[in-house]
Specification:
Blueprint lengths: L4 E4 L5 E4 L2 E3 L5 H12 L5 E2 H8 L5 H18 L7 E3 L3 E4 L4 E2 H14 L3 H15 L13
Parallel strand pairs: 1-7
Antiparallel strand pairs: 1-2, 2-3, 4-6, 5-6
Amino acid sequence: MQDTVRIVLFGGLQIHHEEQVFSHFPTYRARALLAFLAFHREQPHPREFLAEMLWPGGHPDAIRLRLNQTVAEIRKALKPVDTVLRSDRFFLSLNPSVATDVADFLDLIRSAKQTTDLTQKRLLLTRAEAMARMPFLAGHKENTP
């Protein structure tokens, strides 16, 4: 059986792996990058775009280096879970095998839209509503290191 990694964004950024919960990341930008990749998990993202998003207006070589350092910080913070990120020279993404609560939320909404069974629809929407009541990325503030 393959180890499951799950990223939680509702209620605060946490990564669950087996019995471990990772919730501390060294910098705001490490948390922001991981949260962005978890929220937008459907496709790989160009490294240039991510670097500019995190350090707008910076010199391209400098922000590329900072992005590489931030990825290394995330990997170090998540040891021994080294399968969360996928990267190459041009793109960065979340590993498709990583589950997220945001994907679960969207699946509940999609399923509710597709069902004609009103009892099932109500159950699915009630579950989605319970998730949506949780503060999204609680404690995630830009002014933290």
